[in-house]
Automatic annotation (TrEMBL):
Pfam families: CbiQ. This is Energy-coupling factor transporter transmembrane protein EcfT. It is found in: Membrane. It is a multi-pass membrane protein.
């Protein structure tokens, strides 16, 4: 299975100002962008925030190509959303919604492009520790994030490979030729991941003696 980028950029080693920003501040920026997506009501403000996040991404040294890839990946979905919202609510609202989604995508890409995965997971554990009093398991939560980060690109790659194979056979318009192989591959991958975690004693709840 060949590698595929999906939604957010992979870590790019560097020593930029964005790389050196504390992880908690990066988390705060991503959370702020997510919150802003519900609060901003002017598409021009959304455009300004989007431009600022793109500037931060480029300032990190991750490169225009990675930024374009992160945006291009979600473009088909955003086109559908934008056209529907335009039809229902008008062009300004459609533009605002699409731009707000892009703001969140680029903000998440800034985080992942400038933070090693292990540091990111350690940060997730630290953020989840206050919830231990409610029965949360920070380590298990971080493990879930790690599996997700590893699984999503695989599933995206599986879909792309199946689509290419179906196109080569002239079956690109046949839903069964696309969905069934991806479903089988995904289930097999999930079982292999579960078996690997179980073999290492991970993913199972602790049972008191």
């Amino acid at each position: 299975m060949r590698g595929h980028g999906f939604l957010i950029a992979n870590y790019v080693p560097g020593n930029s100002l964005i790389h050196r920003i504390p992880l908690w501040l990066k988390f705060l920026v991503v959370a702020a962008c997510g919150t802003a997506s519900f609060l901003i009501v002017d598409w021009q403000v959304s455009l300004l925030v989007f431009a600022m996040m793109c500037g931060l991404f480029l300032l990190s040294g991750a490169g225009l190509r990675r930024l374009t890839r992160a945006i291009w990946t979600v473009t088909p979905v955003l086109v559908v959303i934008g056209l529907f919202q335009w039809w229902q609510l008008g062009a300004p609202t459609a533009a605002r919604i699409v731009l707000n989604v892009l703001v969140c995508v680029v903000a998440a890409s800034v985080l992942t492009a400038t933070t090693p995965v292990q540091d990111l997971l350690d940060g997730v554990v630290s953020l989840a520790k206050p919830f231990q009093r409610f029965g949360a398991d920070p380590e298990r939560f971080a493990l879930t994030i790690a599996v997700m980060l590893r699984s999503i690109p695989f599933i995206a790659g599986a879909f792309s490979d199946v689509r290419d194979a179906a196109r080569a056979r002239g079956l690109e318009r046949n839903p069964r030729a696309l969905i069934l192989p991806v479903f089988i591959t995904t289930v097999a991958y999930a079982r292999q991941t579960g078996d690997a975690l179980a073999a290492r004693g991970l993913g199972e709840p602790d049972v008191p003696n």
